[in-house]
Amino acid sequence: MCGISGIVDIVARRSIDPDRLARINGRLAHRGPDGEGRHLAAGIGLGHRRLAIIDLEGGKQPLYNETGDVVVVYNGELYNFAALRDELIRRGHHFATRSDTEVIVHAWEEWQEACVHRFRGMFAFALWDETRQTLFLARDRLGEKPVYYTHTPDGLFLFASELGALTAGLSAPPALDLEAVEEYFAFGYVPDPKSIYAGIRKLPPAHHLSLRRGEPAGEPVCYWDVALASPSLQATDERRVAEELAQRLADATRMRMVSDVPIGAFLSGGVDSSGVVAFMAQNSHSPVRTCSMGSADPSFDEREFALQVARRYATDHHEEVVCLDATSLIDRLASLYSEPFADSSALPTYLVSQLARRHVTVALSGDGGDEVFGGYRRHAFHVKEEAVKATVPAGLRAPLFGTLGRIYPRLDRAPRWLRAKATFESLATDAVGGYFRAVTLLPEAQRTQLLTRDFTQALGGYRAVEVLRGHAARAGVDDPLARVLYIDLKTWLPGGMLTKVDRASMASGLEVRAPFLDHELVSWAASLPSALKVRGLDGKLILKKSLEPYLPHPVLYRAKKGFSIPIARWMRGALATRLDGLATSPALSGTHLINRRGLEQMIADHKRGVADHSRILWSVMMFDAFLQTARAPAS
Prior knowledge:
Blueprint: E1 2-9, H1 18-26, E2 35-41, E3 44-50, E4 63-64, E5 70-78, H2 81-90, H3 100-111, E6 121-129, E7 134-139, E8 148-151, E9 156-160, H4 163-167, H5 178-187, E10 200-202, E11 207-212, E12 221-222, H6 238-255, E13 263-266, H7 271-282, E14 289-294, H8 303-312, E15 316-321, H9 326-337, H10 346-357, E16 362-364, H11 369-373, H12 377-389, H13 394-407, H14 421-427, H15 431-439, H16 444-450, H17 453-458, H18 465-475, H19 480-490, H20 492-506, E17 511-513, H21 519-526, H22 541-547, H23 553-556, H24 567-570, H25 576-580, H26 586-589, H27 596-608, H28 614-630
Parallel strand pairs: 13-14, 13-16, 14-15, 16-17
Antiparallel strand pairs: 1-3, 1-9, 2-3, 4-5, 5-6, 6-7, 7-11, 8-9, 8-10, 11-12
Helix pairs in contact: 2-3, 6-7, 6-22, 9-28, 10-20, 12-15, 12-19, 13-14, 14-15, 18-19, 19-20
């Protein structure tokens, strides 16, 4: 795995400042501890940091074609590179290395922009074609690998794997993008294609961007999308589907085991990572190296289930108990993510990545299983809510459920079955509005309390729910589950889950590969009827069925815990001092975005146990840490 960066003059052929490129590339050193490379020519500068995985000697970058007029910098892995290499050789291309990077160069020569259709893997790469005077920037279909870019007023195009690297090439960080701030406080991350800064964008998953010198800058082009199941498709032979799923997951896992360095797996004890380990064991001649991170708090600890899988497959198992200094790690995380990121599970993800790196350089994970097969509780609840709505005439839903939502008390600390207020509020709105309520950190009442009126007015009516509405419209289906899985694939998966894993693993010099995100597996799974995925309050039905021959029953059929930490309790303990100073933070106050009195009230209510505002307060804490880190001198 690697980091890429570049500066391209898209107007003329002005000299590129090598120090400027070095500043950008230097901020990616953690992504590539094994080497650095740069390409500098008239009007073009490309940078690369390398974590060597395939062809340790021959895969150095930037990498060129035989004549030197095509050059690429690349972050990722192409799992079908060997087959593509053989095909390109038959077509007359000559290879100097056995790396997957060189396949990209020759694939461009053969197919130009259409080359991305041939790639099966995770990638973000930038290719410069001197003959065509063209820069080609591309990102993988599901968004496993990131790339940010910006256009400067003087006609330069800058890109980098991480936002902090890109801003290192600017004279000062740009102003905050207010719509992105709105989205952050709604979701806990900034969904693609925005970044937290105005004028800096993320290339969305499954998009490429071509820039030809001397011509107007183009817009990103979508080259792939997942096709959803037809509502008329019926579940027929469940056993046959389960067997095919197991075979497809086994194949996707096997493809991701190609490596010239030590390889292992994250093993959380959940269904997804356990399934991946099972198929790794089938394809390995030696014990699979597995890593688990546990918690001293039994309600957050899953080691007993991980150990069941480790023993069944005789893995070389390593585990540690999370011992967090949360106060110091907050600033560390803010620096690593370089834009506000509020998923508290980034903390244990970072620590398990460090644990894994002590034993392997590549780790397979179970990421994507929930998003592809409907594994989150919100998926099942959404299907149930939509079924209830279907029984009530549209004209009655808002007045009926809206009234119930207003009069029902908020019982944050009551048993889940008594917390009906949010359900009534969701039933009162449309399908997308209801799902937004399931995923948002900041419901309307809390948003009014936390954010200033001036900020809300500056948005001009824009609300983060529009992100979901746009994707729902493109989904093109009425099936409730298919629609929200599509939304998750476009928002939470790349913006939340994969961002978390990429930054945490790359900070540790570790490459993570996700078999569940094989695009052919994702496309096949999307074609399955929803009844095979969610039934009642049970999710991932067909996945669990497919793994029954391979995993212990308690691993498959138990309550989902998730990879999380006790943030609510920490805020009354280890984080109490930091929380007390949050409302008066100079960095936060200087934005004029946060209502100080409202924030103070939330803090007081949380500390007294009147309400659980931990997720919202954590998001504010991480936003404050981001602001402080963004203004600190680069190390």
